[in-house]
Amino acid sequence: MIKLAIKLDKVAIAKLEKAALDSAEVAMNQLEADLISSATMPFDTGDMQNNQTFVARTDSGAAIVTGSPQARRLYYHPEYNFQRGNNANAGAGWLEPYITGNKKDLAKQEFEAEFKRRTGV
């Protein structure tokens, strides 16, 4: 019979958890900045993009939130005739490049780089 005692370093675990949450928030802020610079969100007065879209910290990380009441309707209706005076690439599904498209690894890469910077891991 082998006896084994495991002691967890709760302080170190808490630091890693905090670094993960902070890194997730930084990654979402980078994604939001890229989203704005890509000029793909519908933009009339700029309220939806500049005031109603923000990064919210959650218990498990961070998320990009658009609290504008028209966001859902605009996001899921590509048939709409979107103005392109303020955002040249405005249209529906503006987050799709980050979900399934050519920018799908952006948040992961930003998170990994920030986590490594904060922890050295």
Characterization of the model:
Helices cover about 45% and strands about 10% of the residues. With about 120 residues, the protein is mainly alpha-helical. The chain has one domain. A two-stranded antiparallel sheet has the order 1-2.
Beta fraction of the residues? 5-15%
Major sheet:
2 strands, antiparallel
Structurally, how many domains make up the residues? 1
Compute the gyration radius: what is it? 19 Å
What's the end-to-end separation, in Å? 35 Å
Helical run tally: 5
Trace the largest sheet across and list its strands. Answer: 1-2
Q: Low-confidence parts, pLDDT < 50 over ≥5 residues? A: none
What proportion of the residues is helical, as a percent range? Answer: 40-55%
How many E-type strands? 2
Helix and strand string, N-terminal first?
HHEEHHH
Structural class category: mainly alpha
> What does the average pLDDT come to?
96
The global form is elongated
